[in-house]
Amino acid sequence: MTGWSTGDIPDLDGRVAVVTGANGGLGYVIARELARKGATVVLACRSEERGSAAVRRLMGEVPAAAVEPARLDLGDLASVREFAYGLPYERVDLLVNNAGVMALPHGTTVDGFETQFGVNHLGHFALTGLLLPSLLAAPGARIVTVSSVLHALARVDPRDLNSVRRYGRWTAYARSKSANLLFTHELARRLAGREGASDVRAVAAHPGYAETGLHGAGPRAEGRRLAERLARLGSRVVAQSPEAGALPVLYAATAPGVPSDSFTGPSFAMWRGTPAPSWRASWTIDDAMGERLWAASERLTGVIYEALLP
């Protein structure tokens, strides 16, 4: 991986990619670089206006790009279904579960789930399940889920998935990011056990400390202006750019030989640098916990991964 850059992304001509949260930050960079290498990219965004603006911006940078916006609100399961059923492609070669929210005040999604768990995990769980037939139709397809090194702050609590007993914004965020890794682990395990699906890889990645636009969202939602300014200042001074933060995700999505259930992040202290294998907490590779989260996620979303049933 030494010195790996966007120049090392292989030719993606003929491939179809879906990137969630692609209107800005990491998602925009990921979508742009995939399109630059020839992929047809669907920018799945909650705001139609911001999605269309991102497409115009991207076309200005990569005039030959094959890109299109599509509305997707991960906090609304009806929107997830509408997006998946309306996708006009028989196969999807790459799904990048990138969109997310961070350290928000307590709230709930349209379906009543705690916002961070509902958007960061359940929305992507449902999306992946609904797109699974299209992914299985693409030889060598990859499902990349973006987690965070901050997953280490808290493990998934199966007795309180929606943080009803006690809510802490950072604990809830960490739980959702642990859920991302546990979902990747269980999905990889189930794909490996299904005949004909073993070449479809479920992997995870994280950007380290990168300017994603998320750090000030929580303080802004609560009107804490000083905290928002400090978060933005910290991002400008300490964080790496979205281009640098996107590299581990792009590596996980496109580099040859990336193993299923791997976790890729920046090489220097999991903070910044070129892509490298990243440390992950032991609870994110727990088979029993993976099965429990999977069962709960199917029950809560109503999305059953029928293609992976025994």
Automatic annotation (TrEMBL):
<keyword id="KW-0560">Oxidoreductase</keyword>
<protein>
    <submittedName>
        <fullName>Oxidoreductase</fullName>
    </submittedName>
</protein>
<dbReference type="InterPro" id="IPR002347">
    <property type="entry name" value="SDR_fam"/>
</dbReference>
<dbReference type="Pfam" id="PF00106">
    <property type="entry name" value="adh_short"/>
</dbReference>
<dbReference type="InterPro" id="IPR036291">
    <property type="entry name" value="NAD(P)-bd_dom_sf"/>
</dbReference>
<comment type="similarity">
    <text>Belongs to the short-chain dehydrogenases/reductases (SDR) family.</text>
</comment>
